[in-house]
Amino acid sequence: TQEKKAFCEFIREQIPLFDSMEFMYKERGKGYAVIADDKRVSIKSVDNIFSSGKMPVAASSTLSKREYFVRPDKAAPVLETLGILSKNGKVRNDMIRKYNQIDHFVELLDPLLRELASGTDTINVIDMGCGKSYLDFVLNFYIREVLGKRCHFTGLDINPIVIEDSRKMAAKLKYNNMQFIETDIGSFLPKKRYDLLLTLHACDTATDKALSF
Fold first, then answer.
1. Reduced to 3 states, what is the DSSP secondary structure of residue 149?
2. Local confidence band at 125 (pLDDT 50, 70, 90 cut-offs)
3. Beta bridge partners of 25
4. Burial zone of 169 (CB within 10 Å; 0-12 exposed, 13-18 middle, 19+ buried)
5. What is the dihedral of CA 161, 165, 167, 169, to 10 degrees?
């Protein structure tokens, strides 16, 4: 029907706005959940959710009262480009959890970054399996604008879509010190020495390749 087509089109438009999706529906008396991210899609039975007649309510996240390392008033261009900040300068409700995760990551790395900053002219960072490169862009801002240190980022991923997206964001932000390469990380031959390697939940053997590197 026309309503079904319109609904499917709405879902299709919404999916790229988020890092992951969990879509629940009921068909012929049975409940299902479709779970997807930029790596894979899976489906599972969730009959128990529908047995009570009530749909589950998604858990919400809130901003902390602590002092953030990557503040929206200072990092507005990069946070807006990443889709974390809305046009009015506020962290989007659906991105609060992601923002908290990213900022906590910077907090954990801060002592190491300051140590590296004191021992080298340029901090060279490589991200293996960079995906959408959220961490790279935020760290690039933090090292350059907060620590006042030169840095260079190399992002590697076998997925051409995320590499192209990362390149576009770097161009938009005029981050000429970032490069993104479409490659299997096991095949990458470095042309420089790196001070810091990032790799998060890499799939299949990618984690082993990153450790080997």
1. coil
2. very high
3. 32
4. buried
5. -170
